[in-house]
Queue: 2 jobs
Job 1
Amino acid sequence: MSRFFDQVTGERREAELEERSSLSPSQANQRLILLASNESPYGPSPKALAAAQDALADSHRYPDPDSRELRARLAADLEVRPAQIVVSAGSAALLSLIAGALLEPGLNAITAACTFVVYAAATQATGANLIRVPMKFDRLDLEGILAAVTPQTRLVFIANPNNPTGTIVGVDELEAFLERIPAHVFVVLDEAYHDYAEHFSQLRNIPYSRSLDHVRQGRPVVVLRTFSKVHGLAALRIGYGIGPSALMEFVANSQDTFSVSTAAQAAALAALDDVEHVAFGVKQNALQIAWLSEELARLGWRVAPAWGNFLFCEVDGNTGAIVTRLREEGILIRPMESWGALGCVRIAAGTEEENRILVDVLRKLRAE
Ligand SMILES: *Cc1c(COP(=O)(O)O)cnc(C)c1O
């Protein structure tokens, strides 16, 4: 089981290192433009950094294993009980914990064919089967997922917005889906890009998510959120899940003690307080996503409607050649071959300057 995990994460790490180390020495010194991992280009909130710095002075003390202060804060903000929240070392860690709680050999989990890779890793680590339902073009096929449910199904993973395609599941569509999902199945709603999507929802006047209503109504739904994206704390490893208290307490008990550092807990609390930093991040992101979408479409690329901080594109030309040439220029983007999306790439929106450089290089490549 663990060998599988090692293999998957090992391969990904190697691929990442490969991307960085294959630059020429002079380029390795130059600042890279990192658009391959959907990170925030604006960095963490200075307030979160200061809080983490203060917390470091207490590094000789073990952290609060239950993240009580952060959970109380989140519970108040989200109008749920603290017992319904688990804080973990990144939301990806929660995927493994939830899979571990619900799956075993002979059972199965369902997800989409083109989605977050960790769902497969977390499922396969338990020895359970993963059923991958084909996409409906760039979107998740909830009807297809319902049709795939068997008596052995215990979990469905839905990324909303979906990574890598960036599309969302409609509010009514999800409601209808949850009405029909059988009682023996838990649904994980992974909302890693929640703040970006919420902002787009207001701009576009299209409803995005009522996920917490479902949790408050006591449905078998677990909502996942993270501080890795708009809050800019990916390296500190902190995320959380909100779900039925019985499952969440079980998950909390199966978690490694002290897995979330004091610095991460303090930074997360301060990041929640720094509403301006988040507001800046989502607003700037929306501007950059709109600009980049237009520019890439002008190059003849097909760009999926984006609800996160990244674009899923079908390129005009050879993806391998484009990714390689960009890498030579110090720009990293993600080719989508291993997701089965041939001819496609995923590009995180960088800062205005980074995006201009990207588009300039792509224009130059096209002219070659
Ligand atoms: C980035 C991302 C996460 C966040 O993972 P962390 O472990 O919290 O850093 C979770 N789900 C999806 C779909 C993501 O794209």
Job 2
Amino acid sequence: MSAAMAAGGVTVRSAGEPRRRRIELHVRGVVQGVGFRPFVHRLAVRHALSGWVRNESGEVCIALEGDETEIAAFVSELRREAPPLARIDALEMEPREPDGTEGFAIALSGASPDRRLPISPDVGLCAACETELYDPANRRYRYPFITCTDCGPRFTVIEDMPYDRERTSMRAFTQCAACLDEYRNPVDRRYHSQTNACAACGPRVALLSPGGAGSALDEAALREAADRLRSGGIVAIRGLGGFHLAVDATNVDAIDRLRERKGREAKPLAVMVRRLDEARALAHVDAREADLLQSRERPIVLLRRRSICALAPGVAPGLGTVGVMLAYTPLHHLLLDAVSRPLVMTSGNHSDEPIATGNGEALRRLDGIADAFLVHDREIVARHDDSLLRVVDGAPVFLRRARGYAPLPVRLPIAAPQGIVAVARI
Ligand SMILES: [Zn+2]
Ligand SMILES: [Zn+2]
């Protein structure tokens, strides 16, 4: 694409004199809740462009002013370097009169939020956050709700669009000074990360007894939950889209007890482990299955169970298969580390009821099933089960399409062969 085309029209340039231009860009697709505005800000600074970016209903709107060559470079890099979770479906450009604006800002969102927008699905813990979670020098060392613009809850915490913190269940937590510094720093990975939090200001975990009494907090809650699991207890764990019921997947009696209390006599139970090699110890995993297990969507993948493995037979009675998923929240990682064995993680409900999401609801509905409740105080806005896939002839087939995939449409729009899907209105 030539500079003149990208800048939105035919240009007549005097030799050696870059022309100052202003354009407005309207970007549609999955562009909210995926770190798109911070990315736009960085790109504008890189090209010395002034203007602003803001979430509008149904799109992200960008005003750019500066050298037309730089604007053209910005537009082509916008698509090429978009954040991993973003998907640009359409991009429109409109010319504007330059007004001499200085600097580039992330503006407040426009009005009229629209719930029909594509909202990013929840995303499993990213590699950068996982490294920080286990780095004793990091201020979020072992913090169970570490996130950044590339990972964490989205669909399950967003109440309305546009995606800003005040329209999510993170609204209840006011960022501390250290978190705010990151949030406001354009070169930080957490710049405008709406789920940004730390142990000083963010959600916390607690361990409750049936009935709601308790309660151990934070590290003590994690330790106690792990002890319960290691000794065969059933622990209800509040996750992203609802509660799981967890139990030691190697403990025959504990699994029998879970089945009896849950009224789920013969249906197979999903198992969670932390690492791919732990999944391989339980089941045969081919290359395609390994990719799915480790994908940011983190579905349950139905695998061929090893004839000799640590799993209690009651996990999937009479079947040669087992559903396995890798840990996808920081809380899962910390818990699995502490338990150091595979856990059954089945949805927190009685058979044929929907999964429980609220703390009070879980205490009520899972009374008589769970021996303890590992809860947190980040409210779940949207109920969501784990997705379940199996690979058939090398291709993934959905048995249940939910967390990590929904609410994106099943058929993704066909990607443009190159460049920008542009509808120039000039
Ligand atoms: Zn992250
Ligand atoms: Zn903080």
